[in-house]
Amino acid sequence: MDRQFLEGRRRGVRRTVARTLVALVLMGCFAIALVPLYDVFCEVTGLNGKTASRAQALSAQSADQTRLVTMQFITRSSSGLPWALTTETRQLRLHPGQSAEVSFTFHNLGNRPYVARAVPSVSPSEASVHLRKLACFCFENQRLAAGERFEAPLVFQLTRDLPEDVKTVTLVYTLYEQQVSLSRHSAMQRPGGET
Amino acid sequence: MASHLPTGSSASQQQSGAAEMTSDTHHSGPTGLMRWLLTTNHKEIGTLYLLFSLAMFFIGGLFAMVVRAELFQPGLQLVQPEFFNQMTTMHGLIMVFGAVMPAFVGLANWMVPLQIGAPDMALPRLNNFSFWLLPVAFTMLLATLVMPGGAPNFGWTFYAPLSTTYAPPSTTFFIFSLHLAGISSILGAINIIATILNLRAPGMRMMDMPLFVWTWLITAFLLIAVMPVLAGVITMMLLDIHFGTSFFNAAGGGDPVLFQHLFWFFGHPEVYIMILPAFGIVSVIIPTFARKRLFGYASMVYATASIAILSFLVWAHHMFVVGLPLTAELFFMYSTMLISVPTGVKVFNWITTLFRGSLTFEPPMLFALAFVVLFTIGGFSGLMLAISPADFQYHDTYFVVAHFHYVLVPGAVFAIMAAVYYWLPKWTGHYPHLRLSQWHFWLSVVGVNLTFFPMHFAGLAGMPRRIPDYSLQFADFNMITSIGGFLFGLSQLLFVLVVVLCVRGGRKAPAQAWEGAEDLEWTVPSPAPLHTFETPPDFTPYRH
């Protein structure tokens, strides 16, 4: 077999391998980029029912007197955390554009201090971008000593452009313990993560 | 069993080869075990892959037998629910990553160089490495069964947080073994692409390649595209478990649904990785035994490529019930249904190839025909599942289990068996025992349908998957399924017998073992000598 033929094949193989490796690296980067992309996508569309992670300004708009939306609150504690999160107001009806305040009570039932955070989730998810929180305990961790009680307000507004077919909005708060080690290793937390 | 390779005939070749090519010194290489450990020959590595896959097929099958034995009757009889979960999980993982994928890579190793007239794979040493990663990976995965806390128990889809927050400690080993298997697949894919694109016989254009080569080329691109995503997902799991990150943990601002999106972005192309080479095999076998050219060669190539591209746009049909917005439900429903168009093109091409052909029904043809019929049933139940509102009912029931077992067992596995029966004469120089092969085929067909067809009804009636117990109304379906499962499992021992007998002797096969076979592999002697096509063959395309 002539040398030229073999040399040509060898060069071809090298070129193909180089190109496949480039494709491989690009797909690897894409896979990692999917995480922030997903976050951005969800933030814009509210698809995963998450609300904004910091306080938003009251959008100055008059209340839409033509319709009433039912706002429901559900609270729950995740496994292993001896806390109770309660609210007197399980449900209220309000006009889009109107702002309202609801008070929540944290209670540490355990016998040692814990650090925890209430993580919100909105259903239906298309309502989540229309829920503006002016003040919320969910923006930061709560540290409660054993047996301590703590009352915190949620001030919110449903914007007027809430889709017509949304009649009920449910806001769920789930309590999660924040590992102390978490804050120690905060440098390792994912970039862009909202902690 | 492994010693069937033509050591005798290659000895003479080794000498002549060594005389010819002084630079090539690996001919006087090690013998015995080291020969297999260090081999860079595509045929030997192909054999290793196939034997490994066969071993995994039986281990994964054994796990399935445990599952079916437990489900034989309602109530808990044999195993605890915890162990049952480990069995379903390991069955899925072993079958997908250990049996089906390596079997196709093994077939590619053996047949792609022979079908395109190449002397070997483009990167022989890499080839050796990518094989030997697999035994390491799967030994580690199987070792989790005896670890404290047990093996992975979260299902083969390893959804977070089941596989992170609530996972057994052995999950770390599972992640590492999946990384190794992934690297193996990636290296194998690079090798196959480099071989197909560069080592074709002079004169063979892309559109002259046998379809098995074409489908593998497209499969290899799919592997390159999605294996990094799998690696990324399991790395994020690892970080979540051990390094306090919160990719999939809602408590830290992550999202478990993100896991499902990432997993299925890998997972859906993955299911096509397991079926496209099967399409290629069937597209090679049917024309041979119909003694006709494949109908619609070009449309077959384009259909395969379309399926591959569409596979990236349908992943969320696995997550219809996760709470997608209506537009997303509709998009993924329609894009999923769109896949049935290129798939239909393929099925109609196979049928048209059969039309007015001179059909004979040798074992490979039997398996190929069963593939066409039974895979299509699996495709139809896939169409039913694609209907998003209907999927709300079918989701996580035995209907899903029936669907994907129909496309994977009488689909992918039957295609692999068809390929083995088709190419055994080329590998061993003997025809497989005809009667025994026929017995194997018919027992398998009856077993498969007895196992998986009643699952449709159990699922439609609402039986959930992955649960070791069930309510009484499902008892009859489950007993039939279990009996079918045992029958299918046992009849695979017959397959091993056929292969062993074929390796040891049998009716001698000529170079062209099947009358209607036309590809290049049938121009080399049977059994194929260790080194073939050291000078590229003369290739004349069929049409110009």
Total domain modules of chain A = 2
How many strands, what sense, and barrel or not for the largest sheet of chain B?
none
CATH H level, superfamily name of the largest domain in chain A: Ctag/Cox11
CATH class of the largest domain in chain A: Mainly Beta
Outline the low-pLDDT stretches of chain A: 181-195
Count the domains of chain B: 1
The number of E-state strands of chain B comes to 0
Q: What's the overall geometry of chain B?
A: globular
- CATH homology-level superfamily of chain B: Cytochrome c oxidase-like, subunit I domain
CATH architecture of the largest domain in chain A: Sandwich
Q: Biggest interface: chains and residue counts?
A: A-B, 46 and 42 residues
Rg of chain B is: 23 Å
Write a structural description.
Chain A has helices spanning 3-45, 180-184, and strands at residues 69-77, 83-87, 91-94, 99-108, 114-123, 131-135, 142-144, 149-158, 168-177. Chain A is of the alpha+beta class and 195 residues long. Chain B has a single domain, classed as Cytochrome C Oxidase, Chain A, CATH 1.20.210. With 544 residues, chain B is mainly α. Chain B has 17 helices and no strands. The interface between A and B is large, with 46 and 42 residues.
Helices, strands, pairings?
The complex is a heterodimer of chains A (195) and B (544).
Chain A: H1 3-45, E1 69-77, E2 83-87, E3 91-94, E4 99-108, E5 114-123, E6 131-135, E7 142-144, E8 149-158, E9 168-177, H2 180-184
Parallel strand pairs in A: 1-9
Antiparallel strand pairs in A: 1-3, 2-4, 4-8, 5-7, 5-9, 6-8
Chain B: H1 7-20, H2 33-38, H3 42-70, H4 81-116, H5 124-143, H6 171-198, H7 211-242, H8 256-273, H9 276-290, H10 297-310, H11 326-338, H12 340-354, H13 363-386, H14 388-394, H15 398-428, H16 434-460, H17 475-504
Helix pairs in contact in B: 3-4, 3-5, 3-17, 4-6, 4-15, 5-6, 6-7, 7-8, 7-9, 7-10, 9-12, 9-13, 9-15, 10-12, 13-15, 13-16, 15-16, 15-17, 16-17
